[in-house]
């Protein structure tokens, strides 16, 4: 049982920190909305600590310890941790799912760059699709096809975020554009990070990201009717609201360097209305065969983790390796800053 005070804390964190999700969550039934708010609050807290903190490696290692404590039934004495521990127990949340998010945040701490679109999708799988699959678990959905479409939605949302934030990321020394796209355009990565400009080549990259996102948004829609009826409206709302962010980038001529796309409250209300209509249509429309499309290769491990409720698996070798790298790097920095 989630404590009322902890739930109120999580609700406020999402209300002020994630306007898009807060808007979409209002259309979810309370039985899903409350644990979803807890899930997003915990994930948002983890992301913010890694993204905005001065010690990113240490933040990831701290998150590892917090997750281990939660799954050991001894959460840190903090509202998000206590509430998430309750969600983990109530819904039997596979540890592989928050571990996937942990791995994505570890990649951020390493300032990893991605050679191609598949690499960007792999990153998106961890920081976004993992959350989408956890949402399915909160809806008591473990069907592999529905999970695969939830993963499509997560990747689409993250690609939209990347397209919107090209300039903001570059000014912070980050780049999520596929490096082979820059190579094709004859662009030097470091020069772009030093002086990001909305050149025709960069605009084309934003357009390519949004084209891939649009393809995956369309695929994801086939999975919504596989969800419990009371939850469909909120998921459609999330799809349309995030899709609307991409529309704003398009209207700016794919320039996300000199401007950052924003959506208004009126627009969000319009997309929520669109979600209501689409939910009604889904009740009388035959099931789409797209529901059964194979999952993206990059998200298959998430589908497998959530659809097979067998013996809990340990952390993957890849995650253990990246955590060990961060531990060594953090120790080295500590020894350098505190000489004997």
Automatic annotation (TrEMBL):
The keyword Ribonucleoprotein does not apply. InterPro entries: Isoprenoid_synthase_dom_sf, Squ/phyt_synthse, Squalene/phytoene_synthase_CS, Trans_IPPS_bact-type, Trans_IPPS_HH. It comes from Pseudooctadecabacter jejudonensis. Its cofactor is Mg(2+); Mn(2+); ATP. The lineage of its organism: Bacteria, Pseudomonadati, Pseudomonadota, Alphaproteobacteria, Rhodobacterales. Keywords: Carotenoid biosynthesis, Manganese, Transferase. GO terms for biological process: carotenoid biosynthetic process. This is All-trans-phytoene synthase/15-cis-phytoene synthase. One of its GO terms (molecular function) is squalene synthase [NAD(P)H] activity. Its EC number is 2.5.1.32.
């Amino acid at each position: 049982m989630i404590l009322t005070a902890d739930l109120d804390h999580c609700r406020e964190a999402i209300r002020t920190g994630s306007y898009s999700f807060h808007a979409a969550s209002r259309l979810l039934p309370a039985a899903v909305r409350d644990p979803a708010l807890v899930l997003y609050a915990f994930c948002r807290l983890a992301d913010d600590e890694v993204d905005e903190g001065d010690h990113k490696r240490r933040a990831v290692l701290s998150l590892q310890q917090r997750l281990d404590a939660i799954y050991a039934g001894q959460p840190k004495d903090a509202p998000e941790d206590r509430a998430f521990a309750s969600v983990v127990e109530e819904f039997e949340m596979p540890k592989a799912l928050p571990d996937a998010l942990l791995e994505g945040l570890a990649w951020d701490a390493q300032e990893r760059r991605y050679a191609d679109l598949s690499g960007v999708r792999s990153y998106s799988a961890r920081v976004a699709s993992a959350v989408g699959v956890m949402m399915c678990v909160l809806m008591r959905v473990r069907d592999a096809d529905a999970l695969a479409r939830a993963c499509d939605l997560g990747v689409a949302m993250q690609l939209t975020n990347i397209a919107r934030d090209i300039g903001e990321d570059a000014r912070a020394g980050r780049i999520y554009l596929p490096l082979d796209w820059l190579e094709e355009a004859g662009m030097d990565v470091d020069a772009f990070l030093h002086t990001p400009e909305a050149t025709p080549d960069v605009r084309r990259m934003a357009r390519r990201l949004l084209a891939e996102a649009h393809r995956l948004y369309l695929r994801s829609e086939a999975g919504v009717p596989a969800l419990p009826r009371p939850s469909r409206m909120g998921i459609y709302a999330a799809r349309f609201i995030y899709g609307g962010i991409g529309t704003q980038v398009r209207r700016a001529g794919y320039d996300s360097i000199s401007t950052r796309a924003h959506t208004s409250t009126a627009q969000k209300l319009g997309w929520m209305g669109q979600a209501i209509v689409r939910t009604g249509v889904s009740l009388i429309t035959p099931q789409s065969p797209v529901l059964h499309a194979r999952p993206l290769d990059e998200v298959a491990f998430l589908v497998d983790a959530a659809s097979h409720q067998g013996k809990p698996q340990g952390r993957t070798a890849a995650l253990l390796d990246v955590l060990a790298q961060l531990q060594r790097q953090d120790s080295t920095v500590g020894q350098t800053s505190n000489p004997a």
